[in-house]
Structure formats: structure tokens, C-alpha cells
Amino acid sequence: MSKNNVRQGIHFDLDTAALKVYYPKKSWRMAYDDVREFFTSNGFEHEQGSGYRSTYSMLQADAIEIVTRMLDAYPWLHKCVRVCTIADVPITYDLAPLFDKDIDVPERGC
């Protein structure tokens, strides 16, 4: 576990079959909204899919404490998380400007 004070990344996979059984709200798809709201309210930004990145440097122990608080808030997650990982996030650079949407590329034939 990192002892460095750097940005943290948390990625997880929810078991949709388990969500259909244990998630308490009307639609199990709302679970992703609950998780997003929790993370963004606790110093993380949505990266993509089920990935979140801390908006400031923190110890992994602090990020794990946030996940623990989320489990307290949403006990159904105990039954519904398949995978949950944490990693130090290095400096990230946006490469999207490299992609030219105006480039002439033939469309795929039907």
C-alpha cells in the first residue's frame, strides 16, 4: 500500500444480478448514480465507467476510509461489488486533441 500522498484512483465492478436482488431502490441502475454522488461528494471525480480519481492528493489509507464510509452508507454494496481496486494516479495528460474528428475516413459499407 502506498505511503505517498498522491492522487488515488478507485475502480470497481458491480454485479448486476446481485444489484437486482439487494439494491433497495426501484431501479438497480440507480446504484451507479448513488456511487457517483458519494465519490464526487467526497473528493473524487468520475473518470470513466466505474472509475474515480481523487481531485487532490491523499494517502491510500484516506481513500480506503472514504470507501469504508460508502459501505456504511450503502450496505448493499457488500453483496454487489465484484472487484474494487485502488492505485496511485500519476500525472495525467489529455490526449484527446490528437484525435482529428475532421479527418477524411471512409464510412464502413453496409
Mean pLDDT: 93
CATH-assigned fold name: Alpha-Beta Plaits
What is the distance, rounded to the nearest whole angstrom, between the alpha carbons of the first and last residues?
51 Å
Please indicate the count of domains. 1
Total number of beta strands: 4
Molecular structure report:
- The chain has 110 residues and is of the alpha+beta class.
- It has one domain (7-90): Alpha-Beta Plaits (2-Layer Sandwich), CATH 3.30.70.
- Helices cover 33% and strands 24% of the residues.
- It has a four-stranded antiparallel β-sheet.
- The chain is flat.
- The protein starts with 6 loop residues before the first strand and ends in a 21-residue tail after the last strand.
Gist of the model:
The protein has 110 residues and is α+β, with helices and mostly antiparallel strands. The chain contains four helices and four strands. Helices cover 33% and strands 24% of the residues.
Write the layout of secondary structure elements.
Elements: E1 7-14, H1 16-22, H2 30-40, E2 44-48, E3 51-54, H3 60-73, H4 77-80, E4 81-89
Antiparallel strand pairs: 1-3, 1-4, 2-3
Name its key features:
110 residues; four-stranded antiparallel sheet; alpha+beta; Alpha-Beta Plaits
